[in-house]
Amino acid sequence: MSNRFHGSLVQVNDTGVLIGGASGVGKSETTLELIERGHSFISDDQVCLSLDNGRLKGEAPEAIRGFIEIRGLGILSIPDLYGERCCLAESFIDLAFHIEPGDDPRKLERVGFSRKEKDFFGISIPTIVFPGKTVASLATLIEVAVRDHVNRLKGTVSIRKSSRRYRSKALVQ
């Protein structure tokens, strides 16, 4: 079972990150910034998705393996620019990001009690939606979201700590 996904795949701190969104929203540029920060590149533009022992896995189609397209620069070879070590052949996918065109923050999660999930072949992947236009670097937001995802897997959800602290202070007053 295999399917192609329009987006990029990188590994951020050993977490497979699938980045999707409409054409031109900044997926490749965000991927390039993550590579520049030392994270591992798997694929740009197209990701071949498959199941491997009940987990979602992604890899680049052979024809574009190792290449990224950056508008204004063209098609670039990541191994030639950053070395072979920054590229991985494949990665399990643990977290997905969808970059929305525009900058309407009213449609986005603010508190963070739970994560939306997207279904791939019956596998639910936590998915975070970011605006395409933001004052923050999308790469920084992805790095922070990966750290938060790892904490959530360990049972630490920041908003729950904040809610408990708020409730205890409200009870004292």
Structural notes for this entry:
- With 173 residues, this protein is of the alpha+beta class.
- Helices cover 27% and strands 38% of the residues.
- It is built from four helices and eleven strands.
- It has helices spanning 27-36, 78-82, 138-153, 158-172, and strands at 2-12, 15-21, 40-43, 46-52, 55-59, 67-70, 74-77, 90-92, 95-100, 116-120, 123-131.
- The strands form two sheets. Strands 1, 2, 3, 4, 5, 8, 9, 10 and 11 form a nine-stranded mixed beta sheet that branches. The chain has a two-stranded antiparallel ribbon with strand order 6-7.
- A hairpin with a 2-residue loop joins β10 and β11.
- It is globular and about 45 Å long.
- The model is unreliable at 168-173 (pLDDT under 50).
Tally the helices: what do you get?
4
Query: Which CATH class applies here?
Result: Alpha Beta
Helix content: 25-40%
CATH architecture: 3-Layer(aba) Sandwich
Q: Could you say which structural class the secondary elements and strand pairing correspond to?
A: alpha+beta
- The termini sit apart by 58 Å
Oligomer: single chain
Largest sheet data: 9 strands, mixed
Shape: globular
Instruction: List low-pLDDT spans.
Output: 168-173
Provide the succession of SSEs: EEHEEEEEHEEEEHH
- The number of distinct β-strands equals 11
How many domains? The number is 1
Could you give me the name of the CATH homologous superfamily?
Answer: P-loop containing nucleotide triphosphate hydrolases
CATH topology term? Rossmann fold
Task: Record the SSE blueprint.
Elements: E1 2-12, E2 15-21, H1 27-36, E3 40-43, E4 46-52, E5 55-59, E6 67-70, E7 74-77, H2 78-82, E8 90-92, E9 95-100, E10 116-120, E11 123-131, H3 138-153, H4 158-172
Parallel strand pairs: 2-9, 9-11
Antiparallel strand pairs: 1-2, 1-3, 1-4, 4-5, 5-8, 6-7, 10-11
Helix pairs in contact: 1-3
